[in-house]
TrEMBL record:
EC number assigned by the record: 3.4.11.2
Cofactor: Zn(2+)
Record SUPFAM superfamilies: Leukotriene A4 hydrolase N-terminal domain, Metalloproteases ('zincins'), catalytic domain
Family per record: Belongs to the peptidase M1 family.
UniProt gene name: pepN
MF (Gene Ontology): alanyl aminopeptidase activity; metallopeptidase activity; zinc ion binding
Peptidase M1 alanyl aminopeptidase Ig-like fold domain residues: 446-548
Official protein name in the record: Aminopeptidase N
Keyword vocabulary terms for this entry: Aminopeptidase, Hydrolase, Metal-binding, Metalloprotease, Protease, Zinc
Length: 876
C-alpha cells in the first residue's frame, strides 16, 4: 500500500536479456521454473543487489548459473526476492522455482482457473503472482515458454508468439513450446491451457505475410464467434490502411473466458477476452453487444502496435497506450459505422462516466504523478479523456500531419518503453508546433469550463465572441494554468447557410478550429453581413463544459441546419436540458412541471425527419439520464425528484409525439433475417425508442407485451422486456415475460446477465428487495465478475432512485457487498465502489447515509489496498 511517485522513476540496475519459462500445470500445485538471463546495467553500482517483485509467492528453488544458491546470498519473502553478490559485468542466469495454486486464485490476477481451463491475467502487476520478476513495463525481453500438462484435460497449450513444437511427455502428459521474438514486458505474458473449441481463419498482410487466426471458445459456441472473427479481419485491414501497421507474428489468437475482471487483454499474439465481448448471435446478442465486440476486438488488436511494440516506461504513462488505442478504436468504429452517431455515443459516454470522475474526489490527470494502487487507474480519465486528448492533437495538426507524427512515433520508438513526452515530441517535430501548453491536458485534472457570449454589430458588420476559461480545482491541484482549447466552430445565417468571415482577430482560426489559449479572449469576426448563429465545439472537438446561453430560436436553427450532425444533436440536448433541470427543481418544491414547446417541437421534427439516419434520431430521442441531470444540477440532489421530473417530461414528449411515434413504430419493421449492420441497428433503435414513448401513454402493458412476443432477435426482445420492467413493473405480464426470458435463456449466462441487469435497473425503493431475491437465485454466481457487475453494478451505477433510496438502505447494502467481494476479488470490489464517487452531490439526508456506509467500509479490517485507496479518496 505504499504511494508510488512518478518523480522517483529510475531504470533497473540489471538488464534482462532473455526469459525462459517452464510451467508444469496442476490445478492446485503448478510448478513454475523461470530462467532469467541478466547483466548489470553499465554505469550502475557494481555491488547493488538484484531485487525482484513477488506477490503471495513461495520460493522453492533458486540457482545461479545452474548452481544452488547458498541461503546467505538471498532473501525471499512473499513480496520480493533479493539476491546479493552477483557478477559485476558478466551475464548470469538465475533459475527460480515457485509453486502456485491456480484453483485458489480468486483475484483473477496471475494464473487462475476459469471454466476448467487455465488462463492468465498479468496487467498490471499479475506476473509477480507467477514468479519473482522485475515486474515493470520497462523491462523487455524475448520469451520462450514451455507448457507441460495432462493431455486429456488440456489438449490445448497456448502462449505468446509463434508455436515452436510439442510432443508427448509420458504419464498421459504432453508439452508445447512457444517463442515470442518481440521483446515484451511481463504484463503482456499469457498462457492458456485446456479444452476449447476453435474457429479458424487466415489473413494475408499487405506485404504478403500469412497469418493464422484462431478464436477459442467453449465447445459448441463456435458459431457465436463468427462476428468477432469478421471484426478481427476488418481491424487488421483498417490498421494497415489507416496507420500502415501490419501484424508481426505467424499466428493471432483470441481466447474467450467466462471469469474475467475486465473486457479483454492485449497479450502479445494471445488476447484473452471476457466471453461477453466475443460471443454473439442474433438470438442472444443485442446491437449494442455487436458494436462492443467490434470495438473491443479492434482495441485489443490495435494494441499490438500501440502498447505492445511500443509500450509504457512506467504505469504513469498508461494513457500512452490506452488513450491512443481508444482513439484508434473510435476512429475504426466511426469508419465502419456512422461517424456522427458514433461521436454522439462517445460524448454521451464521456459525459456520463468521465465528467463525474473529473469533477469528484477521484479526479486525476490523464497522466497521473502518483498512485497507491495502479489497478485503480484504469479509469475513464486515462482511457476516454486520454483518447480525447489524442483526438485534439489530430485536430490541431490536421489529418496529414497527425499521420506523419504517428509514423515518426512508430519509427522512432519501436521496441521501446516510452513516455507521454516522447509521444508528444513526435507531433512537435513533424509540425514545428510547440505543444507545451497543449500538454497541460495530460497534467491538469478537471474539466475546463468555457464561458462564451457573442454580440453582433450590424453597422460594423462584426461579430464579437468573448471567451473565458476556468479549470476547476481537483484533489492535489488547486491552481491551474490556462489550457490550449481547440474549438471547432461555424457561423450560420438565418437560412442555415454558412457565413464565412472575411477575417478574424483576437484568436488563431485554422480551418474551422478556433484556438482558445488565454484565460480570457475576445475574438472578432469581420465581414459578417447579418446576425450569425454560432455553433461552438462542433463534433465535441474539446472535452469541456460550455456555458453559452443561446436562444431556443438559435438552438433550433442549429438542430435543423448544422452540417455537423453532432452539433445538431448537441443543440437538441441544449434545448431539452434546461427544461429537465427546471423540472427537477420544481419537482423538489412540489411545483407543477413545465416543458417549453420549442424543445418538444424540435425533438419531434428530428424524430420525423426522413433525411436523418434512424440511429441519429434514436440518439436525439434518448433524453439525458437521471445521473446526467444530477451532475448538471450540481448538488443537493434528490434522486426521486429528478426521476419524477424526467418521467414527466418524457410523458409530455410522448403525448405531443404520439402520431410520430406510432408511424415510426409501424413503418420501421425490418423484414427478413437479422443483420447486425449499423443501418439495421439504427432502425431497431429508433423503433424501440418509439415503442418506449408510446408505452408511456399506455395504461396497460398490452403493446409492450405484444412487442415482446413478436421479437425475433435479442435487441427487440430485451428492449421490450426493459419497457415492461420499467413502465409496468408490478404486472402479471411483466412477471410472465421475466419468467419466460429466464427459462428460455437459463443455460446462457451472458443472457442471464441481461435479465439480472434489467431487473436491477427498475426504479424505486423496492429495488433493493428485488436485488436481494435475485442474489438467491442459482443463476446468480457471486464468484463471477459479469454476474456481479450485472446485478450489483447496475443497481449501484444505474438505478439512482433504488440505490439512493432515502433511508440509506441501498448504500448500506453496497457496503456489505463491497466488504464481501473484497475478500475474494479486490479489483472488482474497488471498481463497483466507485459508484459512490458523487455522494457529496446528494441532499443532506442521503449524503449522511452515504458517508456512514463509506465510513463503515473504511473502518473494516483486512481491506485490500484497492478498496482502501478508493474509499480513502472518496471520503477525503
Ligand atoms: N490493457 C487491458 C486492461 C488491463 C487492466 C488491468 N487492471 C485491456 C485494455 O485496455 O485493452
Ligand atoms: Zn486498452
Amino acid at each position: 500500500g505504499q504511494i508510488v511517485n512518478l518523480a522517483d522513476y529510475r531504470a533497473t540496475d540489471f538488464v534482462l536479456e532473455r526469459v525462459d519459462l517452464t510451467f508444469d500445470l496442476h490445478p492446485t500445485e503448478t510448478k513454475v521454473e523461470a530462467r532469467l538471463i541478466f547483466h548489470r546495467r553499465e554505469g550502475t553500482d557494481p555491488k547493488a543487489p538484484l531485487v525482484l517483485d513477488g506477490d503471495e509467492l513461495v520460493l522453492s528453488g533458486l540457482l545461479l548459473d545452474q548452481v544452488e544458491l547458498p541461503a546467505a546470498q538471498y532473501d525471499a519473502t512473499p513480496e520480493s526476492l533479493t539476491v546479493r553478490d552477483l557478477p559485476e559485468a558478466a551475464p548470469f542466469e538465475l533459475t527460480i522455482t515457485t509453486v502456485i495454486n491456480p484453483e485458489a486464485n480468486t483475484q483473477l490476477m496471475g494464473l487462475y482457473r476459469t471454466g476448467g481451463i487455465y488462463c492468465t491475467q498479468c496487467e498490471a502487476e499479475g506476473f509477480r503472482r507467477i514468479t519473482y520478476f522485475p515486474d515493470r513495463p520497462d523491462v523487455l525481453a524475448p520469451y520462450t515458454v514451455n507448457i507441460i500438462a495432462d493431455k486429456a484435460a488440456n489438449p490445448l497449450l497456448l502462449s505468446n508468439g509463434n508455436f515452436l513444437g510439442g510432443a508427448g511427455y509420458g504419464e498421459g502428459k504432453h508439452f508445447a513450446a512457444w517463442f515470442d521474438p518481440h521483446p515484451k514486458p511481463s504484463y503482456l505474458f499469457a498462457l492458456v491451457a485446456g479444452d476449447l473449441g476453435v474457429v479458424e481463419d487466415a489473413f494475408t498482410t499487405a506485404s504478403g505475410r500469412e497469418v493464422a487466426l484462431k478464436i477459442y471458445v467453449e465447445h459448441g459456441k463456435e458459431p457465436r464467434a463468427a462476428y468477432a472473427m469478421d471484426a478481427l479481419k476488418r481491424s487488421m485491414k483498417w490498421d494497415e490502411e489507416r496507420f500502415g501497421r501490419e501484424y508481426d507474428l505467424d499466428i493471432f489468437m483470441i481466447v474467450a473466458v467466462s471469469d474475467f475482471n475486465m473486457g479483454a487483454m492485449e497479450n502479445k499474439g494471445l488476447n484473452v477476452f471476457n466471453d461477453k465481448y466475443v460471443l454473439a448471435d442474433p438470438e442472444t446478442a443485442t446491437d449494442a453487444d455487436y458494436a462492443n465486440i467490434e470495438a473491443i476486438i479492434a482495441h485489443e488488436y490495435f494494441h499490438n502496435w500501440t502498447g505492445n511494440r511500443i509500450t509504457c516506461r512506467d504505469w504513469f504513462q498508461l494513457c500512452l497506450k490506452e488513450g491512443l488505442t481508444v482513439y484508434r478504436d473510435h476512429e475504426f468504429s466511426a469508419d465502419q459505422r456512422s461517424r456522427p452517431v458514433k461521436r454522439i455515443a462517445e460524448v454521451r459516454h464521456l459525459k456520463s462516466e468521465q465528467f463525474p470522475e473529473d469533477s469528484g474526489p477521484l479526479a486525476h490527470p490523464v497522466r497521473p504523478t502518483k498512485y497507491r494502487e495502479i489497478n485503480n487507474f484504469y479509469t475513464t480519465t486515462v482511457y476516454e479523456k486520454g483518447s480525447e486528448v489524442t483526438r485534439m492533437i489530430a485536430t490541431l495538426l490536421g489529418r496529414d500531419l497527425f499521420k506523419k507524427g504517428m509514423d515518426l512515433y512508430f519509427d522512432r520508438h519501436d521496441g521501446q518503453a516510452v513516455t507521454i513526452e516522447d509521444f508528444v515530441r513526435c507531433f512537435e517535430d513533424v509540425s514545428g508546433r510547440d505543444l507545451a501548453q497543449f500538454s497541460l491536458w495530460y497534467h491538469q485534472a478537471g474539466t475546463p469550463l468555457v464561458t462564451a457570449s457573442g454580440a453582433y454589430d450590424a453597422d460594423g458588420k462584426t461579430f464579437t465572441l468573448s471567451l473565458e476559461q476556468m479549470v476547476p480545482a481537483t484533489p492535489g491541484q488547486t491552481v491551474k494554468k490556462p489550457m490550449h482549447i481547440p474549438l471547432r466552430m461555424g457561423l450560420l445565417a438565418e437560412d442555415g447557410s454558412a457565413i464565412v468571415p472575411a477575417s478574424v482577430t483576437g484568436a488563431e482560426l485554422t480551418g474551422d478550429v478556433l484556438h482558445l489559449t488565454k484565460k480570457a479572449q475576445t475574438v472578432t469576426f469581420h465581414g459578417i453581413p447579418s446576425r450569425p448563429v454560432l455553433s461552438l465545439n462542433r463534433s465535441f472537438s474539446t472535452p469541456i463544459n460550455l456555458q453559452f446561453s443561446q436562444s431556443a430560436h438559435d438552438l433550433a436553427l442549429i438542430a435543423r441546419y448544422e452540417t455537423d450532425h453532432f452539433a445538431r444533436w448537441q443543440a437538441l440536448i441544449d434545448l431539452g436540458l434546461p427544461n429537465l433541470l427546471q423540472a427537477a427543481r420544481d419537482a423538489r418544491q412540489g411545483l407543477d412541471i413545465k416543458c417549453d414547446s420549442a424543445f418538444i417541437d424540435a425533438l419531434l421534427a428530428a424524430a420525423a425527419d426522413e433525411s436523418l439516419e434512424p440511429a441519429f434520431r434514436a440518439q436525439a430521442l434518448a433524453l439525458p439520464s437521471e445521473s446526467d441531470i444530477a451532475r448538471e444540477l450540481g448538488g443537493n440532489n434528490d434522486p426521486d425528484a429528478i426521476h419524477a421530473a424526467r418521467q414527466t417530461i418524457i410523458k409530455r414528449v410522448a403525448e405531443a409525439g404520439k402520431d410520430v411515434f406510432a408511424a415510426l413504430y409501424d413503418s420501421l419493421q425490418t423484414p427478413g433475417p437479422f443483420t447486425p449492420d449499423a443501418a439495421s441497428a439504427g432502425r431497431r433503435a429508433l423503433r424501440n425508442a418509439a415503442l418506449s414513448y408510446l408505452s408511456q401513454l399506455d395504461e396497460a402493458p398490452a403493446r409492450a407485451k405484444a412487442a415482446y412476443d413478436a421479437a425475433n432477435n435479442m435487441t427487440d426482445l430485451s428492449a421490450a422486456l426493459t419497457i415492461l420492467a420499467q413502465r409496468f413493473p408490478d404486472t402479471a405480464e411483466t412477471a410472465a415475460a421475466l419468467a419466460h426470458f429466464r427459462d428460455r435463456f437459463a443455460d446462457n449466462a451472458l443472457v442471464i446477465d441481461k435479465w439480472l441487469a434489467i431487473q436491477a435497473a427498475i426504479p424505486g425503493a423496492g429495488a433493493l428487495e428485488r436485488i436481494r431475491l435475485l442474489m438467491e437465485t442459482p443463476l446468480f454466481k457471486r464468484t463471477n465478475p459479469n454476474r456481479v457487475r450485472s446485478l450489483v453494478g447496475t443497481f449501484a451505477f444505474a438505478n439512482p432512485t433504488g440505490f439512493g433510496r432515502a433511508d440509506g438502505a441501498g448504500y448500506n447494502f453496497l457496503a456489505d457487498e463491497i466488504l464481501e467481494i473484497d475478500q475474494r476479488n479486490p479489483q472488482l470490489a474497488a471498481r463497483i465502489l466507485t459508484s459512490m464517487r458523487s455522494w457529496r452531490l446528494l441532499e443532506p439526508v442521503r449524503a449522511d447515509h452515504a458517508r456512514s456506509a463509506l465510513m463503515r467500509i473504511e473502518r473494516a479490517s483486512g481491506l485490500s489496498t484497492d478498496v482502501r485507496d478508493i474509499v480513502d479518496r472518496i471520503l477525503k
